[in-house]
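@channel sequence for tomorrow's demo:
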Amino acid sequence: MKKDPMEWNSPSRTSPSRHQNHGYFQITGVVGHGDQRGRLLGFPTANIAIPHSGVHNGVWAGTVHLGPQNRRSLYVAAVSIGERPTYYARGQSLLEANLLDYSGDLYGQTVMVTLHTLIRPQRKFAGTSELVDQIQDDVASVRNWAVQAGLGGYLRAEQETDYLLSNPSGAGRP
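structure tokens (generated this afternoon):
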């Protein structure tokens, strides 16, 4: 197997690593603490500090694997990569993954993020409300992508819709 020339060297377990797999970028790293802005905006994120990577800055439709390799859980995610220009003139490059329909604490956990398709480039917004409106659109785009990619079963809303369509009376609901 040919080594990706842009693969990050990973001198410690806390450094992210990245490689290209079947045309998709995969980034593995340890979730660290951020400024918790995503949580305040209603879109909590798993943050991984990354060096400038050669991966296009922007918002991606992605998936995130949690847990050990033999028992991983998969989540669909809206993933932002960049320097967060709305709040910082020149910030640290950061991967922020909003795992759709996930609740829990990921701090200190190793996650593998796969970037599937670029939704839009990174841009600076006039303010927080404009950014929140765009994030809502981004999440809707990622949900649509997931359904089209056959990953709708990993979305809580999709599972609920499928259940109601297959059992309209709601009988036997948990």
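heads up for whoever presents: Residues 32 and 117 are 24 Å apart (CA to CA).
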